[in-house]
Design a protein that fits this description.
CATH architecture of the largest domain: 2-Layer Sandwich
Radius of gyration: 20 Å
CATH topology of the largest domain: Nucleotidyltransferase, domain 5
Largest sheet: 6 strands, mixed
Oligomer: single chain
Strand order of the largest sheet: 2-1-3-4-5-6
Number of domains: 2
Distance between the termini: 28 Å
Mean pLDDT: 90
CATH class of the largest domain: Alpha Beta
Shape: elongated
């Protein structure tokens, strides 16, 4: 559960904006009693976003802090939405990555203070399709996925697929249209990140030798670019002729 806590009207407005990116998140506006409410959510393991002063948060959570391996991630954002601070569980709890994600959504600055912060994300697109899939179908799906991931095409490093698709005219044309590299990867390469897939298709495996083309391709490419473990930013989406997924990894 994500809880967004705001103490002022301007903070409440920002909270509603953030909630658009996380529709299942709940907003607590001026929760009372404040300390008891936030301590209860924290000990329950909820991910917390505070839109208020850092000092208030630390004084309220201090009695229930455990260790960086056990505490849930906590972010603090100023009322103007200019800075996103991962206050607790930066590396181990994922607060650093989460802060970067929200900062990107808000066009804000993530203030990472932990050692060797991940400050430079790379985004890769993976796509699979039927043979001779029209460019229009691929383009429409790609743009839909970018919108869902709150990304622009300018932020994408490359478009990726399986080696069997290296001569796929539609995918080549899509990459050319946006000036992106079109990279293809072998089944052995794609199989190496099988454990990171959100779903596995036996049908796809029997057809091409991997459990998912779009997710595998973007994940492997992201890993190959940074040598850090990638993650799915947007799991596989599909239309009648193609599939698309988006992965992310970070330069240390």
């Amino acid at each position: 559960m994500i809880r967004i806590i705001a103490l002022t009207e301007s903070g409440h407005t920002l909270a509603r904006r953030i909630q658009c990116a996380y529709p299942t998140a709940s907003i607590w506006y001026k929760p009372t009693p404040f300390s008891e409410q936030v301590q209860s959510a924290f000990t329950a393991g909820d991910k917390l976003i505070f839109i208020c002063a850092t000092g208030i948060v630390m004084r309220s959570l201090a009695p229930v802090l455990q260790t960086k391996y056990d505490d849930p991630p906590v972010l603090v954002i100023d009322e103007q939405g200019q800075f996103v601070i991962p206050l607790l569980s930066g590396h181990e709890g994922g607060a650093n990555h989460w802060a970067l994600e929200i900062a990107q959504y808000l066009a804000a600055q993530a203030v990472i203070t932990t050692a060797k912060p991940y400050v430079n994300p790379i985004y890769t697109v993976g796509m699979g399709c039927e043979r001779d899939c029209p460019l229009s179908d691929l383009d429409e799906l790609l743009l839909t996925c970018l919108e869902q991931a709150n990304l622009t095409i300018e932020q994408i490093d490359s478009i990726n697929s399986i080696a069997l698709k290296q001569d796929e005219v539609g995918l080549q044309a899509l990459a050319d249209k946006y000036g992106k590299a079109f990279l293809t990867w072998s089944t052995d390469q794609l199989s190496s990140i099988e454990g990171l897939l959100s779903t596995k298709s036996d049908y796809v495996f029997k057809t091409v030798g991997v459990y998912g083309v779009a997710e595998s391709a973007c994940l492997f490419s992201a890993q190959n670019k940074t040598a850090s473990e990638p993650e799915l930013l947007l799991p596989k989406r599909k239309n009648t002729k193609a599939t698309c997924a988006i992965a992310r990894s970070f330069f240390a």
